[in-house]
Amino acid sequence: MNKTREAECRAKAKKLVSKMTLTEKVYQLRHTAPAIPRLGLGAYNYWNEALHGVARAGEATVFPQAIGMAAAFDEELLGLVADVISTEGRAKYNVQNKYGDNGIYKGLTFWAPNINIFRDPRWGRGHETYGEDPYLTSRLGVSFVKGIQGNDDKYMKAAACAKHFAVHSGPESIRHSFNAECSKQDLRETYLPAFKALVTEAKVEAVMGAYNRTNGEACCASKTLLQDILRKEWGFEGHVTSDCWAIRDINEGHGITKTPAESVGLAMTNGCDINCGNLYEYLLQAVGMGYTTEERIDEALTNVLTTRFKLGILDEDENGNLITVDKDNPYNSIDYTHVDSFSSKEINLKISEESIVLLKNDNLLPFNKNNISSIGVIGPNADSRKALVGNYEGTSSEYVTVLEGIRREVENSGTRVYASNGCDLYKDRVENLGEHSDRIAEVKAVCDVSDVVVAVVGLDATLEGEEGDTGNAYGSGDKPNLQLPGLQQDVLDAIAASGKPAVLVVLAGSALALDKASTQFKAIIQGWYPGALGGTAIANIIFGKKNPEGHLPLTFYSEKNSLPEFTDYNMQGRTYRYMTEEPLYPFGFGLSYTDFEETIAKVVAGPDAYKTVDGQPDNRNIYYKSGDDTIDITVKVANKGAMPGAATV
Fold first, then answer.
1. 251 and 394 assigned to the same domain
2. Is 414 found in the same domain as 267?
3. Which of 441, 449, 444 lies closest to 375 in space, CA to CA?
4. pLDDT of residue 633
5. Final residue of a domain: which of 281, 310, 327?
6. pLDDT tens digit string along 431-489?
7. Domain check: are 545 and 397 in the same one?
8. Main-chain phi, psi angles of 493, to 5 degrees
């Protein structure tokens, strides 16, 4: 969108605000903004989700969870995914608006992506992020935002939101009262770079504050974060929203203020434009008591309404009257046939395949189905739809579990598939009236009659996720440890004891302790939450129709590694950047069925770059430029194996 159009939208928003009473302004600053009939302003709900597909509003393409898409290390493909999401979002908005449905999850203001740093593997919401690396997170986040917001000169396709600002990654159970303390170095080198990139490069339309405090300031009312850094230093011009009901935490959880009026006054004054929740009703009191000003409220509402004008869902006709459907808006023509379409499914399958990480392969994979008469598929996630999707998900028109994907792949080859869920995901029995480990005999029986075995274990979003989101078994959504829950390891022990060639497939959104499994299984696949078509993608990897190309976007720790306290936000000892111990599988790890050769072809280095290799001068293919301290490296990649594939440098 060009600057002239942005200025026009802001001017129209400011004009509209000037026509409102203070009471009307205040109620427009909740996520549920009511209609103002006298002005021709319709109701609008700012709360919508699109983390890996349009969420919580019926049918949509359900892509792999964010952590899985990060494992693809593919900026361009993630941008394409985001473009599909915004297309489907427009299609759904257009039809919902046509039939008068403007409720929650029905707007074009998407509260995604989550670009917090996955600093601790116990954090339940880590699978919503792009992993532990600030650079990878920033590159993927920028691509996602650009894909969501589009590149039209006049209209924004949908509005993205960078969350949760800032220094936020658990624990979930105390997020409403927790103070995340970090050094200036960690703040600038780890927690802020991705947010800065989304603001300065991608021009993200919104930023969401976090529940916690950062260095003593409530994030949704932080002068340091919202004014000094976001607005003044980075030049952010969009709007800021609170996380949902986070404003009440300022007095109830953090104890910074004593009353709701003080809390909303502090948040508004320091830069939080819109409240997800209803506490901003107290702004009327806050103005009267001098905690904030009507001028600041005008500024906040102008920021918020500017987004609706930029989206083209609010505009003026030639007479200056408000309209909600602009005939010139190209996105108004996107119809419902675009929702979870055939082309969307193709992209979904592609990124699902690219996200899968091969962690181990002792000459077992890929399987040749023509040489296998029977295959056993065992485990609580083998036929689980929940394990495909993660959280903040939509409803797919089609789901393919791992069991279904394997069955479809071998159905014409004469291979018989035996199946057992083996155990519950976390309980000690499958049937409520059953006895302890009531499926272990079936596991052994399936192994007996199978040539090869595929074990599918892990987690789902009922175990790891957001506090209170699914009433999960761990309460807060965080993991108590990195072990496979319930009896899953017992099932793996039984499979290993059978002596049958076995592949382990882990469906989980985070790192689990796989030390023992890595000695028991000849092949291990990290499948994440691979999306609605994840079973097809995993089957394609197992049977060699697709080369595994994913890489770990976070460290997989060994049981021997020591983790700092969950509440310690110091980065020392955390992630591949700062840990000193040897992990089980390092950041960036991922095997392939083919062999790649990488050769540094040329290095162009600035004056401050290293001029030595192993202590000796190195002049091979190195050209020193003056005037900067950057290093440009050109790498040639050649596939030396027999199978087509791609490699991430």
1. no
2. no
3. 449
4. 85
5. 327
6. 999 999 999 999 999 999 999 999 999 999 999 999 987 666 667 899 999 999 999 99
7. yes
8. -60, -40
- CA proximity to 446, closest of 376, 372, 504: 376
- Supply the mean pLDDT for the chain: 95
Report the number of distinct structural domains present in the chain.
Answer: 3
Closest CA to 302 of 25, 510, 498, 4: 25
Q: Is 243 a catalytic residue?
A: yes
Q: What is the extent of the structural domain holding 221?
A: 3-52+103-142+152-327
Active-site pick, 172, 243, 404, 466: 243
The residues, any chain, with a CB within 8 Å of residue 355's CB and separated by 6 or more, are 64, 68, 69, 70, 71, 72, 528, 530, 537, 550
pLDDT in tens, 60-77: 999 999 999 999 999 999
Residues 190 and 242 in one domain: yes
112 and 236 both lie in a single domain: yes
Residue 466 lies in a domain: yes
Whether residue 425 sits in one domain with residue 320: no
| Given 88, 404, 409, 464, the catalytic residue | 464
Same domain, 362 and 306: no
pLDDT band at residue 620 under the 50/70/90 scheme? very low
In eight-state DSSP terms, residue 41 is: B
101 counts as catalytic: no
* pLDDT for res 609: 53
- Judge whether 127 lies within some domain: yes
Question: Contact at 8 Å (CB) between 182 and 191?
Answer: yes
- Residue 564 inside a domain? The answer is no
Q: Band the pLDDT of 600: cuts 50, 70, 90.
A: confident
State how far the Cα of 24 lies from the Cα of 307, in Å rounded to an integer: 18
**Contact of 413 with 375, CB cutoff 8 Å:** no
Contact 280, 296 (CB under 8 A): no
Other beta carbons within 10 angstroms of residue 151's beta carbon come to 10
Residue 67 inside a domain? The answer is no
pTM: 0.95
* 3 state SS of 631: strand
Looking at the structure, tell me whether residues 242 and 116 fall in a common domain.
yes
